[in-house]
Design goal:
Blueprint (H helix, E strand, L loop, with lengths): L1 E2 L7 H6 L20 E6 L2 E6 L13 H10 L3 E6 L1 H8 L9 H4 L11 E3 L5 E3 L8 H14 L4 E7 L8 E3 L21 H19 L12 E3 L5 H5 L3 E3 L2 E9 L29 E4 L5 E3 L6 E6 L1 H9 L5 E3 L16
Antiparallel strand pairs: 1-11, 2-14, 2-15, 3-4, 3-6, 5-6, 7-11, 7-12, 8-9, 10-11, 12-13, 13-14
Length: 339
C-alpha cells in the first residue's frame, strides 16, 4: 500500500454515512448504507487461569493478602484464545448478530469490570481487541475480498489518532517502545526479575528523554517530532468523515492476503511485533463493490458487499461471523437478548 495525497476517492463514504451520531443511526454512523448484504466478524477474545490452582478471590481490595501471595509465587498462567460463542456458552448467554460483549459476560454496561470478567468456570475472560482485526484473520478476509472483484485495486484508511503514528510539533518525543528478549518475558518465572529491572530502566530512559520540564525549558521552542509515518504523510491531507479523520493509502487487496502483510504496511512500525499490527480501519474496493469497517471503538469488524461475498465470509471457519441486517444497532444497549 502507498500513501496518496488525494483523498477524494473516499468522498463517496461521506454520502452514505450518517452525519450525526444518534441512536437511530445504528451501525451507519461508521458503516455505509446501501449494500446488498452485511456481515459482522467478531474479534477473538482470550481467557486465562493459573495452572493447577484457582485465581485468588475478588474483589482485590478485600483479599489483598491472597493476591500478594499469588503475585509472589508467580504461578504459570494458561492463556487461550476463544470465540464469542464459546464465551456465551460459559456464561449462559446467547450469541446473535447484535450481541454486545459486556452483556455476553453479564457485566454491568459501562462499568469498569467488563474488560476482564471472572467466569463461572474459573477462567478470567478478557475483552476482544477494538478497532483492529487479528493479522491472520485479516489475511483470510483479504483473500475473499480479492477474489470477489477483478482487478483488486483498493483503498485503505487508518485513523490518524493512534499515538506516535504521525509527527507533530512539540517538545518531547512522540513515541517510545519497550522490547522483551525471546528468553525473558513477563510472568515466565525464571528471568522475570531481570525483565522487571529492564522495564524500569527503559522507563527511566524514556522519562529522561521525553519529560517536559517547564522550569528549565521555559523558552524552548516546539520542534517537529517524527512519527511512524513520514513527515510528508504526517503533514498531508486527511480523509474527513463524521467524527473521524483518516490517512489514505492505495494498492492491491491481494497484498493483504498473506500473513506477512504488516511488513509492507507503511503505518506499521518496523520495531513492532507483527502479531500486533494495526489492520486498516477502513478498506474498500475501487469500484465500491465492498467495504470493510473496523471502527476504533468496535470489538468486531463489519463487511458490506454482495450477497455471495457475505455468505462466503460467514461460512469460512477462519472467522466467527454472522449476517448483519442493514440498520443494525451495535451500541451497548442494543443487545436486548442478553439484557
Amino acid at each position: 500500500m502507498d500513501w496518496i495525497a488525494d483523498v477524494t476517492p473516499g468522498d463517496w463514504l461521506r454520502e452514505r454515512i450518517d452525519a450525526q451520531w444518534t441512536s437511530a443511526s445504528g451501525m451507519h454512523m461508521v458503516v455505509p448504507r446501501g449494500f446488498p448484504a452485511y456481515a459482522r466478524i467478531f474479534h477473538p477474545a482470550t481467557r486465562s487461569r493459573p495452572v493447577g490452582r484457582q485465581w485468588p478471590p475478588l474483589p482485590h481490595d478485600a483479599h489483598g493478602r491472597e493476591w500478594a501471595d499469588f503475585s509472589r509465587e508467580q504461578p504459570a498462567i494458561d492463556t487461550e484464545r476463544l470465540t464469542w460463542g464459546q464465551t456465551a456458552a460459559a456464561f449462559g448467554t446467547r450469541l446473535h448478530p447484535e450481541a454486545q460483549w459486556s452483556r455476553l459476560v453479564r457485566a454491568r454496561d459501562g462499568g469498569s469490570g467488563w474488560q476482564q470478567v471472572r467466569g463461572p468456570d474459573g477462567w478470567e475472560y478478557d475483552a476482544p481487541d477494538e478497532g483492529r482485526m487479528d493479522v491472520e484473520q485479516f489475511a483470510a478476509l483479504a483473500g475473499h475480498l480479492a477474489a470477489d472483484v477483478a482487478p483488486s485495486h483498493a483503498y485503505a484508511a487508518v485513523w490518524d489518532g493512534y499515538g506516535g503514528l504521525v509527527g507533530y510539533l512539540g517538545d518531547s518525543r512522540g513515541r517510545a517502545a519497550i522490547a522483551f528478549s525471546a528468553d525473558a518475558t513477563p510472568g515466565s518465572g525464571a528471568g522475570s526479575d531481570d525483565v522487571s529491572a529492564a522495564i524500569q530502566d527503559r522507563h527511566r530512559q524514556m522519562l529522561d528523554a521525553g519529560a517536559h520540564d517547564p522550569f528549565n525549558n521555559v523558552f524552548r521552542k516546539a520542534t517537529w517530532q517524527p512519527g511512524v509515518l513520514s513527515d510528508d504523510i504526517s503533514r498531508g491531507a486527511r480523509l474527513e468523515l463524521p467524527n473521524r479523520t483518516y490517512i489514505l493509502f492505495a494498492g492491491e487487496t491481494a497484498a493483504f492476503a498473506d500473513v506477512s502483510w504488516p511488513a509492507s504496511a507503511p503505518w506499521v512500525d518496523a520495531g513492532e511485533s507483527p502479531q500486533w499490527a494495526q489492520s486498516p480501519n477502513l478498506m474498500w474496493s475501487a469500484d465500491h463493490r465492498w467495504v470493510v469497517v473496523s471502527e476504533i471503538d468496535f470489538d468486531s469488524t463489519v463487511v458490506a458487499g454482495s450477497v455471495e461475498l457475505i455468505a462466503a465470509i460467514c461460512a469460512d471457519p477462519a472467522f466467527e461471523a454472522l449476517p448483519l441486517p442493514e440498520g443494525a444497532d451495535l451500541s451497548w444497549e442494543a443487545d436486548e437478548v442478553n439484557a
